[in-house]
């Protein structure tokens, strides 16, 4: 669930013209949806590896993941001001540009242009989501999972869906939009689930089809079984959550429960979002703990999240259950 973290070199202000040229190109062809415009953390832009930029439909969020020198920050700020004065910015109805310093505790934000709207409603693939920006590292939706949510929407019709580590219920919104009969969301963070309820309401979904369980997954298997079996299970955990989840230690505990939860021919979307953990970890763990849950394919990542190392990027793998005869 957390965005990837690479060990990256210092940045170079001489590379910033490439940054501004790229975001102008991407902004011009953007379908007016929330979208990553620049992904330096994919390490394809030398000198800009610790810089990202997201379009929040009127607001431009620039993220710095490591401290930069004054020359870099001044050049970045001046370029952003110039962008705000361009015809492209006017055509896109831009109204705020801000820089978030992700390397500092609390991820403080500096507004460069305009007035920040802290809780905007944005759209992705025709669905609405409310963000919470400027105060936390995570704004309420993980943009690199765009194609994962689209896959769920396209594969959820008439299915009973279990959404583990639901966060703000992006997969749940996609599933109900795709015609799911029911979605069960579970996450320890009750505040995040409350935002998930809002996201469903924004899309005028029938909340009688959606359950929000603010519980520890590892203490709730009995409760989850009662709402099953499930034709689709989504596993998108954090890489690490202090006191509750460590990916390489705890993922297996989830996988070994899958045969008790899945319907015949049920599908699993299992995700790993740590640059230190490869697809092989998940493939081997599934084979060891749920051998009848068979690998099908890996979902593509959005092209705007291109990475020099595909195994350092998000891994979203699809499996299907072939119950032992």
From TrEMBL:
Residues 35-319 form the S-adenosylmethionine-dependent methyltransferase domain. Its EC number is 2.1.1.191. GO terms for biological process: methylation; rRNA processing. SUPFAM superfamilies: S-adenosyl-L-methionine-dependent methyltransferases. It holds the Pfam family Methyltrans_SAM. Keywords: Methyltransferase, rRNA processing, S-adenosyl-L-methionine, Transferase. The keyword Transferase applies. This is Ribosomal RNA large subunit methyltransferase I. Gene3D superfamilies: Vaccinia Virus protein VP39 (3.40.50.150). It is an enzyme of class 2 (transferase). GO terms for molecular function: methyltransferase activity.
